[in-house]
Amino acid sequence: MEVTALCFRLVTLGVILLGHVHKSQTRKSDAVRLHVSPNRLQHFEYESVTFQCESTDGSTQLKGIRNTEEIIPACSSRKPSPRSLCAIDKVYSADSGQYWCETSNGQRSNSVNITVTGGPVILESPALVSQGEAVTLRCIKKTNSTNLPVFYKDDTPVQINAAEIRITNVSKSHEGFYKCSFSDVETSPGSWLLLRAKPVVSASSGHSTSVLILLWVAVVILLVILVLVLVGILLIRKHRVTDAVTVFSKIKRGASRSGGDNHTRVEDAGDNLRPGLETNESGNPQTKKGDSSNEETESDDYSAVPKKPRLSHSRVSLNSTADKD
After folding, report:
1. Is it true that the peptide bond before 38 is cis, omega within 30 degrees of 0?
2. What 3-state DSSP class applies to 182?
3. Would you report the helix, strand and coil content of the chain in percent, each value rounded to 5?
4. Dihedrals φ, ψ of 131, to 5°?
5. What's the pLDDT tens digit per position in 113-145?
6. Can you tell me the distance from the alpha carbon of 122 to that of 115, in angstroms, rounded to the nearest whole number?
7. Four-residue CA torsion sign, 182, 183, 186, 189
8. Which of 88, 227, 256, 272 has its CA 20 to 30 Å from the CA of residue 130?
9. For strand 112-117 and strand 42-44, is the pairing parallel, antiparallel, or unpaired?
10. Using CA atoms, how far apart are residues 112 and 110, in angstroms rounded to an integer?
């Protein structure tokens, strides 16, 4: 169970790391964003406009191009933070130009073309538009008018006597140069409706991100291989220990059984020998006594037989002489 838990934790850690890398890559690809307030491309003179640069590290700076010259706008107030703010209290026609946010490592946001006009009419068009979003175009003028505007796309009327143009699902086909006009006043400046492109990422940043992803993938693969090897070693050891314990148990059981059988056999043999020993012990004295009685009987028998008298040698010799005569 502990090995399984360790394996699960390591795999989970690898998945989390990969998710973190992927999430980090996603954030980096969209790490810098520019927001304009009010959210439109055209502004009247003397209005207040705020540019907000959103980044992950707070090193973002607002930059712009005016008359083909790159500048750092003079902000009335700045607020350095992860969402750096640059507020311009009053904008003038000279402030018209292209603006974007850029980090210290070269990452840039989408750029917007801001137009500041001293005229009476402007086109309200979102500063940044993404594909699939809903877009509304309006024609705004400083003075009140009962007339309805006319909207143009690439100098061709597309909406006549309508308060606004609504596009529910904007796509590439809706891109173009838009403007509007009232019959009793002037025409607004024109602005390009462009879909927001992917943020520009420097080549070095993209290369370093790819290397980081490959590194994390390699680390995860090594962790998985290490876990598999560790699990294999532990399983082999566990199998060997189990086999050894099983063999030892069998040997112990066999020894205990054989020991019990031998003990029983010895006891049975002892029980079988005891009657014989007792018989021998009781029979030996009788045998000895019988032998002695027999010896006494035999001696008595021999003593009972009458012994013939021995003739003396002289007597025998006399008898033999007499016979000769």
Report:
1. yes
2. coil
3. 45, 25, 30
4. -65, 135
5. 999 999 999 999 999 899 999 999 999 998 887
6. 9
7. positive
8. 88
9. parallel
10. 7
